[in-house]
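Structure first, sequence second, as always.
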């Protein structure tokens, strides 16, 4: 039983809208929907099912464990394991026709050996490091590894991929350098399969980067990867996070609030407590910096955000009562607090804000 009023509302209608808007932009490119990290906090299984109904055929996960969750839920699309294959996962990947990202010689050899033992070809996507500095073959090594793979009977290279170093494409000069380097590698290797490099921003802002497939995460969930995208595509937020006032007190000027008294009241104030904290996804960095909405009014977070509880100043909200709705992310009386707003007040990015929504926050799905 959980009647705690801290709830994330997930609008599956808006999710489908965003997918179709991306499909329009992507034109003839396949759209891979990134549902890793519990679909950025939205609920991986429910989101993947809704996207399947909307027509999605490709899904991106971080790990084989996440792929297993999708398989057990009945998702029948093609699943790409983006972070690579750990030793011991080869059999599972091959058995379930998953696509594994491979970024070193050892990974290729392990997949070929596993395929040989099973009598079945492994489907892999080779990653090139064009400037991200993380996973991937260096461009000067790529042609050699592709020539070597041609001698492997139990590995099929279904795709070649890379990753932009600027998620928002702010440094367009470097992004274009990465794209050209990626194209050059593919030409030298004579590869004719799936090619993909574009993230959400690349899909929207750089048509030349769309290639055969695009990989969209944040845009699927209705958040613009950069301000420049707003004029190019119409996205709708999928998630809203709400709770209700748990307690109200009238406290005198000079009263300290919360652990360490990091906030001291500057006037006689009405202080409300909401049943949500960093154990739910309100970042501790929002202490004395963030805001929530009550009856359409911005109310500051005061004191240190605790694991389960957060104090807010409701002095200027008329007729405020215990049980009144509090919007942490979402809309109230025409005013909006977005995941971007929450991120800005805690010096982070909306990706982190969404991913930190914990399992104890109930998800209620609408519009499905």
């Amino acid at each position: 039983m959980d009647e705690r009023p801290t709830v994330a509302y997930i609008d599956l209608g808006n999710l489908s809208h965003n997918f179709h808007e991306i499909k329009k932009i992507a034109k003839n490119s396949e759209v891979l929907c990134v549902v890793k990290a519990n679909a950025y906090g939205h609920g991986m299984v429910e989101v993947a099912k809704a996207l399947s109904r909307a027509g999605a055929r490709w899904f991106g996960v971080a790990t084989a464990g996440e792929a297993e969750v999708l398989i057990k839920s009945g998702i029948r699309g093609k699943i790409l394991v983006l972070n690579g294959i750990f030793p011991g996962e080869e059999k599972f990947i091959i058995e379930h026709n998953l696509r594994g990202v491979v970024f070193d010689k050892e990974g290729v050899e392990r997949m070929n050996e596993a395929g040989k033992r099973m009598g079945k070809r492994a489907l892999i996507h080779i990653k090139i490091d064009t400037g991200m500095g993380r996973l991937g073959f260096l461009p000067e090594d790529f042609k050699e590894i592709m020539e070597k793979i041609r001698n492997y009977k139990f590995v099929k290279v279904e795709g070649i991929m890379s990753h932009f170093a600027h998620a928002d494409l702010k440094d367009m000069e470097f992004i274009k350098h990465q794209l050209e380097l990626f194209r050059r590698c593919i030409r030298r290797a004579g590869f004719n399969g799936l090619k993909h490099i574009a993230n959400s921003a690349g899909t929207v802002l750089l048509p030349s980067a769309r290639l055969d497939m695009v990989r969209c995460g944040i845009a699927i969930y209705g958040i613009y990867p950069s301000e420049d995208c707003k004029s190019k595509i119409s996205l709708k937020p999928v998630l809203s996070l709400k709770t209700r006032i748990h307690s109200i007190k009238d406290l005198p000027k000079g009263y300290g609030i919360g652990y360490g008294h990091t906030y001291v009241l500057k006037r006689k104030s009405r202080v409300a407590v909401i049943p949500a904290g960093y154990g739910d996804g309100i970042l501790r960095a929002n202490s004395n910096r963030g805001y929530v909405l009550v009856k359409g009014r911005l109310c500051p977070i005061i004191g240190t955000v605790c694991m389960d509880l957060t104090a807010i100043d409701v002095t200027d909200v008329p007729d405020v009562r215990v049980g009144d709705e509090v919007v942490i992310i979402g809309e109230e009386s025409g005013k909006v607090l977005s995941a971007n707003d929450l991120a800005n007040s805690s010096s982070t990015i909306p990706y982190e804000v969404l991913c930190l929504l914990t399992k104890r926050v109930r998800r209620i799905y609408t519009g499905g």
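Margin note: The chain is about 30% helix and 25% strand.
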